[in-house]
Design goal:
The chain is built from no helices and eleven strands. The protein is mainly β and 117 residues long. A hairpin with a 4-residue loop joins strand 7 and strand 8.
């Protein structure tokens, strides 16, 4: 079973940057598409960014386009989310996930991101 472990969350002021990492174990690169999701208090979990299994295609939620960048290092089995120009509304628990066409196959445990104004 694939295990996903996120890191890199924390507290930052508005306008600041953070880079989230998600390390996958028991995973063969190219098996799954990968994505970042987030869930703010009292809200449903939402997709933030995705990257295709071989890394050629990325997608972003409109709310983060131009500010967030998803990438992966296949040699390290690690997924990244570079978050720039952070806003208070980006505050949430961020999860990485391995996905198939049927949906999310595996979730990480989540990492908290807090952006203060």
């Amino acid at each position: 079973q694939v295990q996903l472990v996120e890191s890199g969350g924390g507290s930052v002021q508005a306008g600041g940057s953070l880079r989230l990492s998600c390390t996958a174990s028991r995973y063969t690169y190219g098996t799954y598409s990968m994505g970042w999701f987030r869930q703010a208090p009292g809200k449903e979990r939402e997709g933030v960014a995705t990257i295709s299994a071989l890394g050629g295609v990325t997608t972003y939620a409109d709310s983060v386009k131009g500010r967030f960048t998803i990438s992966q290092d296949n040699a390290k089995n690690t997924l990244y989310l570079q978050m720039n120009s952070l806003k208070p509304e980006d505050t949430a628990v961020y999860y990485c996930a391995a996905t198939t066409r049927a949906g999310v196959k595996y979730w990480g445990q989540g990492t908290q991101v807090t952006v203060s104004s």
